[in-house]
Structure formats: C-alpha cells, structure tokens
Design brief:
Largest sheet: none
Helix content: over 70%
Low-confidence stretches: none
Number of helices: 13
Strand content: under 5%
Order of helices and strands: HHHHHHHHHHHHH
Radius of gyration: 22 Å
Mean pLDDT: 86
Length: 298
C-alpha cells in the first residue's frame, strides 16, 4: 500500500484531476475482477463475497486520487492526520459490527479481512514520500535520509518496547492482524516498509540499480499473477496433487518448499501466456502487427 501510494503521487494535481474518471474506473474494474475471482475459487458463498485487502487498497487509492485532485497536497496531509486516528474515530468497531451483521444475515463464513486502520496510514505516508520524491527532485537526498533515519529509530523503538511477532502454526492466519492492532506494532510495520523503500531509493540515487528482469516482470504484472495464481492452485495443483498422492498411496505434507515450487510454476505459466500473445489474439489486438512489442522484456 505504501508503494502504491508512492507511485500514485507521480502525477501532479492537474494531471490526476484530468484523468480522475479513468483512474476510478480502473480501480472499480479491479474490484469487480476480484469479486468474480472470489465467486470462482471460493469454497462457499460467504468467502466468495468476502472483502479482502486488495479491494480495500483500490478504494483507498481512489480516495487518495479524489482528495489530491480537488484538495492538493494539503488535502493529503489532512487525510494522513485523519488516518492516524482511525481507531479513535470508531472505524474498527463499526467494521466489526458490519461483519457480524453480514455473518448473521447472509453467511457465517463472510469476512471483512481488509481493515482500513491497518492500511490507510501506510498508503498516506507512501503518497507524501512519493510526492516529495517526484515533485521536489532537489530534495530527494534529504527526504531519503530523513525517512531512513526515522525508520531506523522507529524500528529500534519497536524492537525494545513492542511485542514479538507470534505465529500459530496450526492456523497461520489466526494472528495475522494482531501486530498491527497496537500502536507499537504499527510503528514497527511502518518502519520496516519505509526502511526498505528509502534504502532502495538511496541506492538508486548512487547509481546502484536493483534490476533483475524476472523480479521486474513479477512486479509489473503482480496483479495478474495475484488474480490467476489462485485459480491455478484450486483447479490445477490441488486436483493434481490429490491424484498423484492417491495413486502413490502417500501423504504429501504441506511445506514452504512445496508452496514455493508450485507458486514458481504458476508464475512461469502466467509469464508464458502473457508473452505468447494469446490474450492479444483473443482480443483482436494482434491485427495492428505491433502486439509483440507489448511483451518485450523491459
């Protein structure tokens, strides 16, 4: 979310306002695609209609675009201040009540997994950082060192005074939000996010480019990978693993190495589909004879 906010700030206020409708349509279409994906891969109706983080990110990016388009950077500063007091404003309690109501009235497995208090401030900070970086080039070194110093101090504060991260191996999602629910936990998360971003930008300013084509491709098509890898796991790897283990009479233990291998294969499949031009042919774009240029490695 921090990086998404950083990238959204590339354009100035006038450019954002001029293209606002197209951006809002893009964010809305992504939410729609994710809703359709949920109906395809979810095991029940409750999970199919659940609201997940990427959907919230699109809503927050739409909010940032609207505020910046009509209120400029001052509007984003005000929104950042508001984001720090989301919990005190009663937003988490309202979300919990809404989740309980939907579970009671519609389906017990419904989940509002996207918590605005966990993501909004991160996105706002990222936007402000990106705004200075993109529109105040003479201050790039200054903002980088301010951010990295602040991140290091915040991380030290978290390590000394914050609670340790805990994972329930029986249910790895049971405590996924617990760290971010406390002030020190959020400080720790923000510090790690912006320590990474500022470090990469400092290296960039020094002419050291962290540039590896496979990683660049995953970053460029991360949303495509995210959307389709679930379907691949549900409709390909799941049945295939079940068939293999049944034929061999063995029990396949879920492990990091197995998930990593299957995820890598999924990404390679999506890469092949993208590079093959199949999508362009299905859409008719190949007729302009330039479709292959869209798939050249950056």
């Amino acid at each position: 979310m921090a990086l998404a906010g950083f990238n959204l700030a590339i354009k100035n206020q006038q450019q954002i306002r001029a293209g606002l409708i197209k951006k809002l349509m893009l964010f809305g279409s992504i939410i729609l695609i994710l809703c359709i994906e949920g109906l395809i891969v979810a095991p029940n109706f409750g999970e199919a209609i659940s609201f997940y983080p990427v959907m919230l990110w699109m809503i927050l990016l739409a909010l940032f675009a609207i505020v910046y388009a009509f209120a400029g950077i001052r509007g984003m500063l005000a929104l950042t201040l508001i984001s720090l007091f989301i919990s005190q404003l009663g937003v988490p309690k309202a979300i919990n009540n809404l989740e309980i109501a939907i579970r009671t009235l519609i389906h017990p497995d419904f989940e509002l997994d996207a918590r605005v208090e966990l993501f909004m401030a991160s996105g706002c900070f990222g936007f402000l950082y990106g705004w200075v970086w993109h529109h105040k080039p003479e201050k790039q070194d200054l903002i980088n060192y301010v951010v990295i110093a602040t991140s290091i101090i915040a991380l030290i504060v978290y390590v000394i005074f914050g609670d340790a991260i805990s994972i329930n191996l029986a249910n790895i999602y049971a405590e996924e939000h617990s760290l971010a629910e406390g002030v020190l936990g959020r400080i720790g998360i923000w510090s790690m996010e912006f320590l990474v971003i500022s470090s990469v930008l400092i290296l960039h300013r020094r002419g050291i480019q962290l540039n590896w084509p496979p990683i660049n491709w995953i970053g460029m098509y991360s949303l495509t990978v995210f959307i389709f890898h679930k379907s691949i796991f549900v409709f390909l790897w799941g049945p295939l693993m079940t068939l293999i283990t049944a034929k061999l009479g063995i029990t396949l233990i879920n492990s990091f190495s197995l998930v990593f291998a299957l995820t890598t294969l999924s990404i390679m499949m999506i890469y092949v589909v993208k590079r093959s031009g199949i999508v362009c042919h299905l859409m008719g774009d190949h007729q302009d004879k330039n479709w292959h240029a869209s798939y050249k490695s950056p």
